[in-house]
């Protein structure tokens, strides 16, 4: 018992230390200085992506940082993905968004846009060996598009006319792979993005001229952050006048930039890719482990309390426990994450950091499953055990602590460790709200080098190693409990 208490105290101290690291913020010596949080995609080269040092670069990023420097304000770039950025902006989670966002009348209902900083058009690309040459060849076939993009909207607008179906992806690399592997016959993308992807290794070719030219703009929530919008417009005008804008565009779309990227592509062996990206992958793994540990601690506390409410002799408590378990087990984790990250801030008018939203999401979802097996473990103990304890004069609470729970714990422990493994895997879903865990880190790396198979193999192996170790731990604990 003494060892158990020491172990428990060590765990608590460790959790407090991890929480301190996770939630602590650096001291800002100039607290009055405004730092704007800007959402972006970082899987949309050449406009935003992570370079081979895993620093966020691209036309959009460089324009934003240059304007901020010239206009005397600071920005904190949030790599949360296009879809998440749109929802976060609407929820007030971020101050602005620069992610190759095409200015449209529909988007103007929710966003205020800056002056345009780039003109583009939509093109259709097919596999290199494809015989498709025009929209007319798409009849009865499947076309890949990317969620929430103007290119995707354009494809849908001509879908009925040309008789094709669409399949939607959240990132460009998976869309390109779907076409190059033959699952879809074509994809729609903005011209400079498609040109950049082909130059850097995508096995596709463009077969149409740019259609429905659009304009990219920096966006803020409608009616909000107007001062930031004015600063961006003033800064954009200045960098176009002094030549900085042209230098930025040439840096990423010039002939020398394309040649450099193409040359680097040939050197992407599995070992080279690991050496280039191991620090970023290990950083993503560290974030995954912190998320998992904190979430399982809070989920265990939440689950045990809800589970115990399900077995106490009180109908109201039983009903509350059953309802909580039913609701949070019934909600898909993805829906719950988006509801907490974007829905709740809209309701409360307060920001919820993505990391905190992720912890809350996993706590509620995994806690509901924990509550179910805690309740089941206690109910699995023979009813006669409680009756015997009560007949000896033990109060209900003491009988539960001294007699029922020790027996139920032996039944629950393997489930606790299995839930830890499930929680570790479920952290990957939190990439949808932009948390830089292992899966999101993999997406960002792939957006730069388009080496999806090799990078996902690395990510899969990392997950497999950690889960194998946890499985061994589960079996070891189960053997110790039985001995």
UniProtKB/TrEMBL annotation:
Can you cite a GO biological process for this protein?
A: amino acid transport
GO-annotated molecular function: ligand-gated monoatomic ion channel activity
| Keyword vocabulary terms for this entry | Cell membrane, Membrane, Transmembrane, Transmembrane helix, Transport
The GO cellular component terms are: ATP-binding cassette (ABC) transporter complex
The portions of this protein that span the membrane are 289-312, 324-344, 455-473
Per UniProt, residues of the ABC transmembrane type-1 domain are: 285-474
Where in this chain does the entry annotate a coiled-coil region? none
Q: Where in the cell is it found?
A: Cell membrane
How does the entry describe its membrane topology? Multi-pass membrane protein
Pfam families linked: BPD_transp_1, SBP_bac_3
Q: Which family does it belong to?
A: Belongs to the binding-protein-dependent transport system permease family.
Q: What is this protein called?
A: ABC transporter permease subunit
Lineage runs:
Bacteria, Bacillati, Bacillota, Bacilli, Lactobacillales
């Amino acid at each position: 018992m003494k060892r158990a208490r020491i172990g428990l105290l060590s765990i608590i101290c460790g959790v407090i230390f991890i929480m301190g690291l996770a939630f602590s913020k650096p001291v800002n010596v100039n607290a009055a200085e405004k730092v704007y949080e800007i959402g972006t995609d970082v899987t949309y080269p050449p406009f935003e992506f992570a370079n081979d040092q895993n620093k966020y670069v691209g036309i959009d990023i460089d324009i934003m940082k240059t304007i901020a420097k010239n206009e005397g304000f600071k920005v904190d770039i949030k790599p949360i993905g296009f879809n998440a950025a749109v929802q976060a902006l609407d929820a007030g989670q971020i101050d602005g968004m620069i992610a190759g966002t095409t200015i449209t009348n529909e988007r103007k209902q929710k966003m205020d846009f800056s002056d345009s900083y780039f003109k583009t058009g939509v093109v259709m690309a097919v596999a290199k060996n494809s015989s498709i040459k025009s929209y007319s060849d798409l009849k009865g076939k499947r076309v890949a598009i990317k969620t929430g993009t103007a290119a995707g909207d354009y494809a849908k607008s001509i879908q009925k006319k040309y008789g094709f179906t669409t399949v939607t992806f959240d990132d460009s690399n998976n869309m390109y792979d779907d076409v190059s592997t033959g699952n879809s016959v074509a994809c729609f993308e903005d011209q400079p993005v498609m040109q950049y992807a082909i130059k850097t290794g995508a096995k596709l070719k463009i077969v149409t001229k740019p259609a429905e030219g659009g304009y990219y703009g920096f966006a803020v929530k409608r009616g909000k952050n107007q001062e930031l919008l004015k600063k961006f417009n003033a800064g954009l005008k200045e960098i176009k006048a002094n030549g900085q804008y042209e230098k930025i565009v040439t840096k990423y779309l010039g002939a020398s930039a394309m040649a450099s990227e193409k040359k680097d592509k040939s050197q992407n062996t599995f070992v080279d890719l690991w050496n280039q990206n191991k620090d970023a992958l290990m950083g993503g793994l560290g974030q995954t482990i912190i998320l998992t540990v904190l979430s399982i601690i809070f989920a265990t506390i939440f689950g045990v309390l809800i589970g115990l409410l399900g077995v106490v002799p009180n109908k109201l408590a039983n009903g509350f426990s059953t309802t909580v378990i039913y609701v949070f087990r019934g909600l898909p984790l993805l829906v719950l994450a988006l509801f907490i990250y974007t829905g709740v801030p809209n309701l409360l008018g307060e920001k919820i950091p993505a990391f905190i939203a992720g912890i809350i999401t996993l706590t509620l979802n995994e806690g509901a499953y924990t509550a179910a097996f805690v309740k089941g473990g206690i109910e699995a103990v023979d009813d006669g055990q409680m009756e015997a304890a009560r007949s000896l004069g033990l109060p209900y609470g003491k009988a539960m602590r001294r007699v029922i729970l020790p027996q139920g714990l032996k039944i629950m422990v393997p489930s606790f460790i299995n839930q830890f493994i499930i929680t570790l895997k479920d952290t990957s879903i939190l990439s949808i709200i932009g948390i830089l865990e292992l899966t999101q880190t993999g997406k960002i790396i792939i957006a730069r080098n388009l080496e999806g198979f090799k990078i996902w193999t690395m990510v899969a192996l990392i997950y497999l190693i950690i889960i194998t170790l946890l499985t061994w731990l589960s079996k070891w604990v189960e053997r110790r409990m039985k001995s």
